[in-house]
Design a protein that fits this description.
The chain is mainly β and 413 residues long. The chain is 13% helix and 48% strand. The strands form eight sheets. A four-stranded antiparallel β-sheet has the order 3-2-5-6, with no helix packed on it. It has a four-stranded antiparallel β-sheet with strand order 8-31-30-29, with no helix packed on it. It has a four-stranded antiparallel β-sheet with strand order 9-10-11-12, with no helix packed on it.
C-alpha cells in the first residue's frame, strides 16, 4: 500500500512539474488606467530570460513565456512599472492597465535647437544617405566630381569610419525587410556592415531588382504588400501576396471620387482639342496628381494614411482593418503631401512649408491631432528629409561656398 501511495505521489509531482513548465503565449491589450486609451511602445520582458516584446500602435502585445510560473515586467517611460505573475491558471489573453507616473520636473530654460552640419570638414557633395543602427551610410561625390563617388560609413556625429570608391551610383535604398542597398546604374548590392567595414553582397541585375524587390512596400507575417494605380492615378489599390500559398488578396482600394467623375468628360475634351496630345498632358499635370495615401509600418503594425478619406487605418496581423483614427490637418494650407516615419521611435510627422521654410508636426496615432512642432529655420528649401531616433536629418546646398557642396544636417527634435 505504501509503495502504491509513493508511486501515486511521484506521478502527481511529475504532473505538477509539467504543468508548471508548460509554455504560454500571452496576448492582450495595454490601456491607460485613467482614460482606457491604448498605450503604444510598452516594453515587455519575461524576468530571468532574454525574451522581450513591445506593444504596437493600437496597444496590443504578444509575448511567449517559455515556462510557468513566471513574471512579466511591463515598463514605459510615462507609466509606472507593472509586474504580472503568470502561472498555469493565468488566461492566455490578459488586459493590462498602467498608471501614469506623477513626475515633478525641474525648472529649466527652453532653447531653440539649431541644425548641426555633419562631416563639414570633408569636401563632400552628398547625394543620399540612410541609417544602419547607430551609424549613417552616406553616398557622396568627393570634390563634387562624379568620377570620385564614395560610399562612406559614419558615426552619428559625422566622423568617417570607412569609405569605399564606387562606380555609377544611383541611390541608397532600404527594403521592406530593413536591409540597406546600394543601387547603381546596372546592379543592386545589399550592404552588410561588420566591424565598421561595408561589405557588398548578393549582387542583382537592376532590372530584376526593380521588378521583384523594389515594388514590395512592406512585409508582415509572411505576406508581401504591393500597390497599383489605375485611372490616371486616381484609384489606388493595395494588395498582398501570401508567400506560403502564393495567393493575392486585396487589402484596400482608395479612390478620389471627384477626379474619377472628371475623367468621364476628359476624353471628350481631349478629342475635341486641336492638339489632343498636348491637351492630355495639360489635363494630367493640372488636375490629376496621384492619390497620396501612403502605407507604412509602425512598430510592426501596418498603417495606411488615407488622406482622401481623412483617416488613419490600422491593420491586424491578418491584414484586416482593426481601427480607424480621423485626421483633418491635410485640409489646411501649406501641407506638402508628405509624411515621415521615425522607425526608431514609432512616431510620424507631417511636413509643412511656407516661404521655403520647412516645419514638421508630429501626428498623434491616438486621435489624429497634430502635436509637437519642429521648425527648421534659416534653411530654405531643404531636401531628402528623414527622421530617425528623435532627430531630423536633411540635405542643404551651401550656396555661400565656392563649390556649393550639398551637406548633411542634423537637428534634435
Amino acid at each position: 500500500m505504501k509503495k502504491s501511495l509513493l508511486i501515486l505521489a511521484f506521478a502527481l509531482m511529475q504532473i505538477l512539474t509539467f504543468a508548471q513548465q508548460k509554455a504560454l503565449q500571452l496576448t492582450g491589450t495595454i490601456l491607460d488606467s485613467a482614460t482606457t486609451e491604448a498605450i503604444t511602445n510598452v516594453s515587455l520582458k519575461v524576468n530571468g530570460t532574454i525574451i522581450t516584446a513591445q506593444s504596437n500602435a493600437i496597444g496590443n502585445y504578444s509575448i511567449r513565456i517559455p515556462a510557468v510560473p513566471a513574471v512579466v515586467c511591463f515598463t514605459h517611460l510615462n507609466y509606472e512599472t507593472f509586474n504580472l505573475n503568470v502561472d498555469s491558471s493565468t488566461p492566455s489573453s490578459f488586459t493590462i492597465k498602467l498608471k501614469k507616473k506623477v513626475t515633478v520636473l525641474p525648472i529649466f530654460d527652453v532653447t531653440t535647437n539649431k541644425p548641426q552640419t555633419l562631416a563639414r570638414e570633408q569636401p563632400l557633395y552628398i547625394k543620399d544617405y540612410g541609417f544602419y543602427n547607430d551609424k549613417i551610410i552616406v553616398l557622396a561625390y568627393k570634390d563634387k566630381m562624379f568620377s570620385k563617388a564614395l560610399l562612406c560609413l559614419m558615426n552619428m556625429d559625422g566622423d568617417t569610419l570607412c569609405s569605399v570608391h564606387i562606380k555609377d551610383p544611383d541611390e541608397l535604398y532600404r527594403d521592406c525587410f530593413g536591409n540597406n542597398h546600394l543601387v547603381t546604374k546596372s546592379t543592386d548590392w545589399q550592404l552588410f556592415i561588420d566591424s565598421n567595414i561595408v561589405n557588398f553582397i548578393y549582387p542583382s541585375d537592376i532590372e530584376k531588382f526593380n521588378e521583384l524587390l523594389k515594388p514590395v512596400l512592406a512585409e508582415k507575417d509572411n505576406k508581401l504588400i504591393y500597390q497599383q494605380y489605375y485611372y490616371n492615378n486616381q484609384l489606388l489599390q493595395y494588395f498582398f501576396i501570401d508567400k506560403s500559398t502564393r495567393k493575392a488578396e486585396e487589402l484596400k482600394v482608395i479612390a478620389d471620387e471627384k477626379k474619377m467623375f472628371m475623367l468621364r468628360d476628359a476624353a471628350r475634351i481631349i478629342e475635341g482639342s486641336d492638339d489632343p496630345e498636348t491637351q492630355a498632358r495639360f489635363e494630367n499635370l493640372a488636375f490629376y496628381k496621384p492619390i497620396y495615401a501612403p502605407l507604412v509600418k509602425i512598430n510592426d503594425t501596418i498603417c495606411i494614411f488615407n488622406f482622401p478619406d481623412s483617416v488613419i487605418e490600422f491593420y491586424s496581423d491578418s491584414c484586416k482593418l482593426a481601427k480607424e483614427v480621423p485626421i483633418s490637418f491635410s485640409q489646411t494650407g501649406n501641407w506638402k503631401r508628405k509624411i515621415f516615419v521615425d522607425d526608431a521611435k514609432g512616431k510620424v510627422y507631417a511636413m509643412f512649408r511656407k516661404n521655403g521654410i520647412t516645419t514638421l508636426k508630429e501626428i498623434s496615432l491616438k486621435n489624429g491631432e497634430l502635436l509637437n512642432t519642429v521648425v527648421i529655420p534659416e534653411f530654405p528649401f531643404i531636401d531628402n528629409i528623414k527622421v530617425y531616433n528623435n532627430n531630423v536629418y536633411f540635405l542643404y546646398t551651401e550656396h555661400n561656398e565656392i563649390n556649393e557642396f550639398k551637406r548633411l544636417y542634423r537637428m534634435k527634435i
